[in-house]
Amino acid sequence: MLDVKRLRILREVAQHGSFSAAADSLYLSQSAVSQQIATLEREVGMQLLDRTREGPKLTDAGRVLVQHAEAAMARLDEAERELAAIAGLEGGELRLASFPSASATLLTEAVSVFHRRHPKVRLSVADAEPEESLPRLRGGELDLALSFDYPSVPKIEDRDMERTLVLTESMHLALPKAHPLAERRVVPLAEFADQKWLCGSRPSTCSAAVLRACRDAGFEPQIGFESDDYHVMQGFIAAGLGFTLLPDLALPTLRDDLVVRATDPPAPKRRVWATTRAEGSRSPATDEMVSILVEVGAGFAARSGERLTLVA
């Protein structure tokens, strides 16, 4: 059986790039760190670190062991948090991450509800797109991440993750109010085949929806500008620099000089998920937040139709 303490020391050496920095972070002496690493190498029968002039570097065996060590320590951290919360959400911590448009809408409301119901649970929230938050969730740095995907875009399932659907939202073409087609309730996307389009710069952002919608309409979009900020995109659209698709979650902050319209063919849907690690490693606080997010998502969906009527 490998010693968890030694695995933690190996991880710290790899992260800090030196024995002395790892010793400082663990409040140990440098000689104690070196001895523990040497003992661990004897236990596994392989060299785990290359001692170079630039500092210790993980060998292939060391990288494999650190990956498993991170998973094992994440499980132990989860056990500590669950034990703290077992008395009925009277303590413990819940660490969350969300992409910006959900942070400003779904998560803000959900955190408010959770805090009213369970004020003794500590909450922390970080802004992060799915490609950043999901690896952090997998590594045990987070308890829950709001993520999104598109049903039309193939996705590899992760057996270590569990997803609960919070919201299925529509995507809408955003236009300046003065645009000739702004009076139509449904706009043919083919009319914009020769126009500039705006996309997100990250792989998981609205670029997937824009590309699929335009290709379904029979053309390859000309990408003029890239931004992952819907407020910036709205500014570009208002200035006549291009067009893009906005999800329902972006509509509460729609500029007064823009309108959104349904498209022909219909734009892809976007699904918002409360993503956690597999059920066996979830805390009661995580389960409670998932339930609240589903509740908040249902309320947001019910209000979306009214909001679209107002912006029409």
Features:
D-Maltodextrin-Binding Protein, domain 2, 312 residues, 3 domains, five-stranded mixed sheet, alpha/beta, elongated, Arc Repressor Mutant, subunit A, 9 helices
Q: Which CATH architecture of the largest domain is right?
A: 3-Layer(aba) Sandwich
Q: Structural class per helix/strand content?
A: alpha/beta
- Helix proportion of residues, in percent? 40-55%
Tally of distinct domains: 3
Tell me the radius of gyration.
Answer: 24 Å
CATH level-3 fold name of the largest domain: D-Maltodextrin-Binding Protein, domain 2
Q: How do the strands line up in the largest sheet?
A: 4-3-5-13-6
Total helices: the number is 9
User: Main sheet, how many strands, which sense, barrel?
Assistant: 5 strands, mixed
Distance between the termini: 65 Å
Can you tell me about this structure?
This protein has three domains: 4-82, Orthogonal Bundle (Arc Repressor Mutant, subunit A); 86-168 and 271-311, D-Maltodextrin-Binding Protein, domain 2; 171-268, D-Maltodextrin-Binding Protein, domain 2 (3-Layer(aba) Sandwich). It contains nine helices and 13 strands. It is elongated. It has helices at residues 4-16, 19-26, 30-44, 60-85, 100-117, 130-138, 207-216, 230-238, 284-311; strands at 49-52, 55-58, 93-98, 122-127, 144-149, 161-169, 171-176, 186-188, 196-199, 222-226, 244-247, 258-264, 270-277. With 312 residues, it is an alpha/beta fold.
